[in-house]
Design brief:
Helix content: 25-40%
Mean pLDDT: 82
Number of strands: 35
Strand content: 15-25%
Number of helices: 26
Low-confidence stretches: 1-22, 917-925
Radius of gyration: 57 Å
Largest sheet: 6 strands, mixed
Structural class: alpha+beta
């Protein structure tokens, strides 16, 4: 908003803008006119036509006796006489103290007798206002004339030179320095005089002699002091303490010096530097909390002052106004407290008073969200500090340094919490770790009593694990216990959160069921500690003073508890991992994403060995691919796969360099961990896995064998519906009957073909349970014919009989007709399934000889056989054997055929030959079989 211009007087006549101002005159004697104008406060002169001062107003700075009778040109340095209409004339005159003063002389009017009345706008009030500002600066400020004579000195200048201000004025400034400083000082003044712009800045290093001590060096900075008309009045000289600069530089160096350990040691050295400028007897560095309603002293000097408690204390509301005022010094503590703190008994004030402090100056640290901390210097002398000392503290750039100390303290708290977490993680004994941690917590927070309770849910009670007390009177009885549904501990367990009692026994404050043994304690706090999602322990903290637990302490404690819970979770995880790694029967290998082996459990070490492979040194980490067999691309593909690996069978080289079959499963951890876990299961130790593999492969083989026959049977059955349609359309009944008979025969044949498989499995199982059957005469040709006739026509066409195989008067043997028929069916059906060429036939050749009867089942020459069957590095792999045995048992049951032949006193010859080794569980030679020859003795007689 702009200023409103005053309205002109309504009755005042206005002159034309281009009209010249007419001179006017007053009547009266010059002295009388001057007295009248003096009474109304108008500074003026009455000049004769010759320029002599006839009279002067008494309000002028110069005395009338010093003006009357003198020429105005002599007093004000006028170059020409003043005349009406000249306007304001800038002049400079010398004041009573010898200082040059700017002024303006304005001809106002004339007397009837011809004298000129001149209005004087004197610059003295402005110079005095400026001097008042100089008096408040912490630097020594002088006004000098052109010869270097002091015309003004502020209080700090007098203190710096050690003389009263009155004694300084009128003396040459250079006289107070070393003799050698006179020339440089005068040359600096001349340089300022030569400056036509009035903005020069000239610095000279000077020194003030100190008896019996080294000279104190300073920097004297001078700048021109011009009048409004540009005429030089003199120079302004400022003594900048080299001590102040050196202290500021030293403080900055100390703050950044990594060789000084910790912020407390740095604060001590900084206070030593500050003492060179500002004497103090006591210093407190503290932090504010809860919007300047709490204060905690975190560093008190000198050390050993026990009057400051190491906890948060309440501050009166007036402290914020005190900080906001910017005048943060106290001349007299008593008067300050009476004025600003109407409620007596404040704990912070009591700390000052108990130390005998009378005066203080405080430098607050301000952040974006308010005041965070403060450094206070204290003295037992009233009035020891003022604005000058506060300005010195600000000039030292202490705020960034104190902010850094706050940050380092926060880092200390974070490091303390992290150290407790690491201690719990690495603890061999949690009980021993608890003993140490409880002591550390008590010392860190300066608590009187700390106890850790275990929640015994089995017996429904709290049990003291460990405790630490500052005094014996605070301690709990040894082995103290408390029911889980009682007391403050029970309330904490039930509510699952931190609880605090500000004043024990005072009904004004919530007690939360506090009880237990009587002890001289005034406040308490209980905090739950969780493990695996439930409260496992409770931390009990108590103090001998009321309201001991404030917001910031509670926040710090909760952060520490969270860190402890994280450490406990890691401890549990480590123990669980160690137990699982030690007890599992699987080989567990931790690997990096690039394949480097990081850790193995005992089983993996025993299985794969710990020696380096593939030419690696002992210092190199082995790769998981080092354990693959050279040239085994399948295993390498699994080990380097980026896809999920779940129970894949692979072959690795074991610790002896021999192949070993394993089931491999890989679990990928969080991507940020860059780690995976391989689980290797030794197949040789998997009895249940072999049984399951056998069962699964048996079912798969039976389904494969019966799928075609059952599908054809279903298709033929669906065609019977069409017969009804044919009958309704007039097809003769005998034709429909013939068609129905044919479909029925074909359906029975296909079902019979599928039934062969089930019958073979049933007979093989039954043969292991039933007793040996009674032998009777069995005509082999007829039995073979029955077996073939039971097959579907499509299979019958693929079977070729040789010699007299189909004759019913062929050789006869003594045996079990059912067991022999089952063996015949198994071998014929097996060869039919192996047939892979359209022209290939299953040949059945029955012949007799001197050794008995021979029955040969084979495939004709048109059959195509694989020349390179798959080869495994571990040919006796238990899972492979189980798979082979399942296929063998479900497809041909060679073992049962062998037993049948042996039971009949005969022999079985196979192509390829059977192994001479005794059969093992689930063991079988590699199929496919190409031919079977049964040799049976003929019936005697």
């Amino acid at each position: 908003m702009t200023e409103m211009e005053p309205e002109p007087y309504r009755d005042t006549p206005t002159l034309p803008r281009d009209a010249a101002l007419r001179e006017f005159s007053l009547s009266g004697e010059p002295g009388e006119v001057a007295r009248v104008l003096s009474r109304v406060g108008v500074p003026c002169l009455v000049l004769a036509a010759t320029g002599e001062i006839m009279a002067a107003s008494s309000v002028l700075p110069l005395a009338r006796d010093a003006l009357a009778g003198r020429l105005a040109s002599q007093v004000y340095g006028l170059a020409k006489p003043l005349r009406m209409g000249d306007g304001a004339v800038d002049v400079v005159y010398r004041g009573a103290g010898g200082a040059r003063v700017p002024a303006q002389l304005i001809p106002l009017c004339t007397l009837d007798s011809g004298e000129l009345i001149v209005l004087v706008n004197d610059g003295t009030p402005f110079r005095e206002a400026e001097a008042h500002r100089f008096a408040r600066t912490p630097y020594a400020v002088f006004r000098l004339d052109m010869q270097g004579v002091i015309r003004f000195a502020n209080p700090e200048a007098a203190r710096t030179l050690g003389l009263p201000r009155d004694a300084l004025c009128g003396t040459r400034l250079a006289a107070h320095f070393r003799p050698s400083d006179g020339g440089p000082v005068q040359r600096a003044i001349v340089r300022c005089m030569e400056d036509t712009e009035g903005d020069a800045m000239v610095a000279v290093t000077i020194a003030i002699p100190v008896p019996d001590d080294a000279d104190r060096q300073f920097e004297l900075v001078m700048t021109p002091d011009p009048a409004p008309n540009g005429q030089l009045l003199g120079v302004i000289a400022v003594i900048q303490s080299r001590t102040l600069e050196s202290v500021r530089d030293e403080i900055r160096r100390i703050a950044l010096d990594p060789a000084i350990g910790g912020w407390r040691a740095k604060l001590d050295r900084i206070l030593e530097q500050i003492r060179r400028l500002i004497p103090f007897e006591h210093a407190v560095f503290g932090i504010y909390g809860n919007d300047v309603s709490l204060f905690r002293a975190i560093a008190v000097r000198p050390e050993g002052v026990e009057l400051w408690p190491a906890r948060w204390m309440d501050l009166p509301p007036t402290i914020r106004a005190f900080l906001d005022s910017g005048r943060t010094w106290v001349d007299k503590i008593g008067a300050f407290v009476r004025k600003n703190m109407p409620e007596p008994g404040n704990e912070v004030v009591r700390c000052y008073q108990d130390l005998g402090i009378e005066a203080s100056v405080t430098l607050p640290v301000t952040r974006a969200d308010g005041y965070s901390s403060a450094l206070s210097l204290c003295s037992r002398q009233p009035g020891a500090y003022g604005e000058r000392h506060l300005e010195m503290l600000r000039t030292l750039d202490l705020e960034p340094v104190l902010m850094r100390f706050e940050k380092e303290r926060d880092d200390e708290r974070a490091e303390f919490a992290d150290s407790l977490r690491r201690k719990v993680m690495a603890a061999a004994s949690l009980r021993q770790a608890a003993d140490e941690i409880i002591v550390q917590l008590a010392q860190h927070f300066s608590w009187d009593h700390v106890a850790l309770y275990r929640v015994n849910r089995q017996d429904n009670r709290f049990e003291v694990v460990t405790q630490h007390s500052l005094a014996p009177a605070y301690a709990l009885p040894p082995g103290y216990q408390q029911p889980t549904d009682q007391g403050m501990l029970g309330a904490t367990l039930a509510q699952g959160r931190l609880l605090a009692v500000d004043d024990i026994g005072n009904p004004i404050y919530a007690q939360h069921g506090y009880g237990g043994p009587k002890r001289p304690l005034r406040s308490a706090m209980t905090v739950p500690i969780h493990l695996n999602g439930r409260i496992r322990w409770l931390l009990d903290v108590e103090s001998s003073v009321s309201h001991a637990f404030k917001g910031p302490d509670i926040d710090d404690l909760l952060q520490i508890i969270a860190s402890l819970e994280e450490g406990l979770a890691q401890h549990l995880l480590n123990q669980t991992k160690q137990s699982l790694m030690a007890e599992t029967e699987q080989a567990v290998v931790f690997v990096g994403r690039e394949g480097a082996v990081i850790e193995m459990n005992r089983v993996a070490t025993d299985m794969l060995g710990a020696e380096p492979r593939r030419g690696r040194s002992q210092a190199e980490s082995p790769s998981i691919t080092d354990y693959a067999i050279v040239g085994d691309e399948a295993t390498l593909g699994v080990l380097t796969s980026t896809f999920t690996v779940k129970r894949e069978r692979i072959e690795l080289l074991d610790s002896t360099g021999q192949p070993r079959s394993v089931l491999a499963t890989r679990t990928d951890l969080d991507p940020s961990l860059d780690m995976s876990i391989w689980f290797f299961t030794d197949i040789a130790d998997l009895g249940w896995a072999r049984d399951l593999r056998y069962l699964r492969e048996t079912v798969a083989e039976v389904a494969r064998q019966t799928r075609t026959s059952l599908s054809l049977a279903c298709s033929l059955t669906s065609q019977t519906v069409l017969l009804h349609d044919d009958a309704r359309q007039g097809t003769p009944a005998d034709v429909v009957a013939a068609q129905a008979h044919d479909l029925s025969q074909r359906i029975v044949a296909e079902i019979g073909k599928a039934d062969i498989t089930f019958e073979r499995l049933a007979s093989a199982s039954e043969s292991r349970r039933r007793t040996r059957a009674t032998h009777s005469d069995v005509e082999l040709g007829a039995r073979l014919q029955e077996v073939v006739t039971a097959l579907p026509a499509r299979d019958q066409r693929r079977i070729a009989f040789a010699n007299h195989t189909a004759s019913r008067d062929g050789p006869t043997v003594s045996g079990d007709a059912q067991a022999l028929a089952a063996a015949f069916r198994s071998m014929i059906d097996y060869l039919l399934r192996c047939r892979n060429a359209d022209d290939a036939r299953v040949t059945v050749d029955l012949d007799t000889g001197p050794d008995g009867c021979e029955i040969r089942f084979a495939l004709s020459e048109e059959q195509v056989w694989e020349s390179d069957p798959p080869v495994h590095a571990v040919p006796d792999d238990a899972l492979l054997n189980a798979e082979r045995a399942a296929h063998d048992g479900a497809s041909i049951a060679i073992t049962q055929i062998q037993e049948t032949v042996i039971d009949h006193g005969g022999a079985l010859v196979t192509d390829p030959p059977l192994s001479d080794a005794p059969p093992q569980a689930y063991e079988s030679v590699t199929p496919p079989w190409r031919a079977f020859t049964l040799i049976l003795p003929l019936r005697a007689g």
